[in-house]
Recover the amino acids of this structure.
């Protein structure tokens, strides 16, 4: 009767051992020997299970279980180098080990001793970073730009004519009073390129075709405005300059671009664009004052 009870519940013991072995895989870089040990234990357990099954199936005397158990235990002797790898105290300082260290780590070292022997593998604790709301950030490094979302999307388009570039005196809207390039918001169901062509014509009367995308500007303002701007360049145009309610356009020699009358960020990336380089720029502004910036050159898309 006792042997039947053991046989009926033995499977759960085997499952426990195999699950334990699988759990050791989480520490596989430090648990190779101990994973082997649990597999050897599982094999010995299965051997004993076979003995029990044969005894019950052939209706042999139940006392034969004890010789079977003895045979199984004797097999531990040649396999002892695989089995006797579990230690309860640190191999270096004799400090009591945690269950995880006993069951998973081949070196049988406590945390402090492992750190001394493997300083290159121990990660240095970094100070916990407190998330910063984009509008409260004062440095571009404080913002997770991958998760950042603009509240507005706009375009600007620079028209280059030999050694001159088309600029405007901004009459209204964001940047009123500053010198900039023609541009504005992207309308629904309109591409950035289409917006650049439309805004240039509406503000200056100049017609451009197939403007080239040169870069992306991402602005976070301290008042909460978050804007992404697409920068376009074109070297072909037609039409005649006209002044509008939004802008007073003028041709300016490239060598005389009045950066001191423009947004502070322009002097950082506009020279790159004039050299034909593509870029991504990220900025934090308090009204018209730039607090922080980062410019990164990119390969053309």
């Amino acid at each position: 009767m006792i042997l039947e009870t053991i046989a009926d519940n033995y499977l759960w013991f085997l499952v426990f051992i195999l699950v334990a072995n699988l759990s050791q895989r989480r520490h596989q870089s430090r648990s190779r020997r101990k994973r082997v040990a649990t597999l050897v234990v599982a094999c010995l357990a299965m051997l004993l299970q076979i003995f029990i099954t044969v005894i019950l199936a052939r209706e042999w005397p139940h006392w034969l279980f004890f010789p079977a158990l003895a045979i199984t235990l004797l097999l531990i002797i040649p396999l002892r180098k695989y089995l006797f790898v579990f230690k309860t105290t640190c191999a270096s300082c004799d400090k009591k080990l945690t269950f995880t260290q006993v069951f998973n780590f081949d070196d049988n070292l406590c945390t402090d001793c492992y750190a001394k022997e493997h300083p290159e593998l121990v990660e240095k604790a970094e100070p916990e970073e407190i998330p910063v709301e984009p509008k409260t950030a004062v440095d571009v490094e404080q913002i997770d730009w991958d998760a950042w979302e603009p509240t507005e999307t706009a375009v600007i388009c620079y028209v280059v004519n030999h050694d001159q570039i088309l600029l405007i005196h901004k009459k209204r809207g964001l940047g009123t009073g500053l010198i900039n390039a023609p541009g504005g918001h992207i309308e629904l169901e309109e591409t950035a390129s289409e917006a650049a062509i439309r805004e240039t014509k509406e503000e200056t009367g100049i017609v451009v075709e197939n403007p080239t995308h040169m870069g992306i500007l991402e602005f976070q303002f301290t008042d909460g405005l978050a804007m992404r701007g697409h920068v376009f360049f074109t070297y072909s145009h037609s039409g005649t300059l006209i002044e509008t309610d939004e802008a007073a356009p003028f041709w300016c020699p490239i060598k005389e671009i009045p950066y001191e009358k423009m947004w502070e960020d322009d002097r950082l990336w506009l020279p790159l664009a004039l050299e034909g380089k593509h870029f991504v720029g990220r900025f934090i502004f308090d009204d018209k004052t730039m607090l922080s910036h980062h410019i990164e050159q990119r390969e053309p898309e």
Residues 135-298 form a domain with the Nucleoside Triphosphate Pyrophosphohydrolase fold (CATH 3.90.79.10). Residues 32-57 form the longest helix (26 residues). The chain is about 35% helix and 25% strand.
